Amino acid sequence: MTKKIGRPSKPMMLAINASIDGKKKQASQLVAEHKLNKRELQHRLELRDGNKYDLNMGKGVRKKVAPKKTVVSTDFLDKIDGRTKTTTLLRLENRIQELLAQKPKKEVTKVKEAFKNYNKKKQELEAMEKLIGI
């Protein structure tokens, strides 16, 4: 019974990709550094037939998907003002907090900063409109 060849380790994939690119020095350095099997490297090079490994699709790595853009209509905000119950608002707030918890913190802080800047600019615009008389 022959041994099943699975996905190689990351250093092996890097060495294979370097060999395919023609970077023999980098490949041999990876082999020496990580104590990789040279026979296995040659065998996998033959199997790959010039096709490099996609290192972004490993275990635990998600595909980068463009975030869905949602638009909040102003009539929705008008409905919240007078006719919405407090419990509904609390449910909405909890749901928003859950969604924010799933996002990377860096992205959330960017949006919060942009919102603060938006509010400042909106107040400045309103002040200017009052001065002008619009």
Task: Give a description of the structure.
The protein starts with 9 loop residues before the first helix and ends with a helix. The longest helix has 28 residues. It is mostly helical and 134 residues long. Helix 1 packs antiparallel against helix 2. The mean pLDDT is 79. The protein is built from six helices and no strands.
Report how far apart the termini are. Answer: 85 Å
How many strands?
0
* Helix percentage: 55-70%
What is the N-to-C order of secondary-structure elements (H for helix, E for strand)?
A: HHHHHH
Number of helices: 6
- Label the overall shape: elongated
Radius of gyration (Å): 28 Å
Unreliable stretches (pLDDT < 50, length at least 5) are none
Strand content: under 5%
Core attributes:
elongated, 0% strand, mainly alpha
Secondary structure elements and pairings:
Blueprint (H helix, E strand, L loop, with lengths): L9 H12 L2 H11 L3 H11 L25 H10 L2 H17 L2 H28 L2
Helix pairs in contact: 1-2
Brief write-up:
This protein is mostly helical. Helix content is 66%, strand content 0%.
